[in-house]
Amino acid sequence: AVETLRSGVRMVGTLPIIGTGLPTHYEQRLSIEELKRSIKTRNKELLSYLKVDKHQSWLIEDMKKDVARGRMHKLKLVKKLDTSKNLIARRFSREQGVKADGTAKKRAVDDMTACGVNPACTPREKLTLEGLDHLVQVAKRRSRAGVAALKLWKADIEGAFKRVPTSEADQPLLWVAVKDELQQVWVAQHKTACFGATASVHAWHR
């Protein structure tokens, strides 16, 4: 895991076994070679249907923040990108509740399935998460052990996936696009794992 953080995680291909999930056989839906051969066609299709997101200005500002934090390369207009060699995914927003100030809590999501990255990624285990039932059992056992004042504490790691670097070999497949109100398409390239990619989940568990 330490070496993975040094070299960066792979976002496509067969993923390494983590050991925390149930070993499962997944069929490879798309090879890396097929994905790379279809980059130009996939990008052309994406740009033909890309629309202005409801929160497009927020999405662009969020990308600029990731650039400042070293998580993305600098934004540029798509016309300055070689779309025959660099794969682009649609970036869109999702509202997830309301903040204390009454504004919408938003998350940026990258459609790594439609662009082909997820189909070219093959896990070898089904990951399982500990849920509320586990928490209740732990609380019961601690109570029986004599712990009188049980308290819950939640720690949310901001930009969790974005703390995991990606392999430089896969970064040409990790461009995302947002269209602004002037119909200009802005793109930026991920340096770190992104929300929307299967490999990001496995990398975070690893």
Structural notes for this entry:
- The protein is of the alpha/beta class.
- Helices cover 28% and strands 18% of the residues.
- The protein is globular, with a radius of gyration of 20 Å.
- The N and C termini lie close together (6 Å).
- The model has no long low-confidence stretch (mean pLDDT 94).
How many β-strand stretches?
9
Mean pLDDT: 94
Order of helices and strands: HEEHHHEEEEEHEEH
Q: Poorly predicted ranges (pLDDT <50, ≥5 residues)?
A: none
N- and C-termini, Cα separation: 6 Å
- Tell me roughly what share of residues is in helical segments: 25-40%
Outline: globular
How much is the radius of gyration in Å? 20 Å
Note the total helix count.
6
Which percent band covers the strand fraction?
Answer: 15-25%
Describe the sheet with the most strands: 5 strands, mixed
Neighbour order of strands in the largest sheet: 3-9-8-4-5
Supply the helix-strand structural class.
alpha/beta
In short:
The protein is an alpha/beta fold and 206 residues long. Helix content is 28%, strand content 18%.
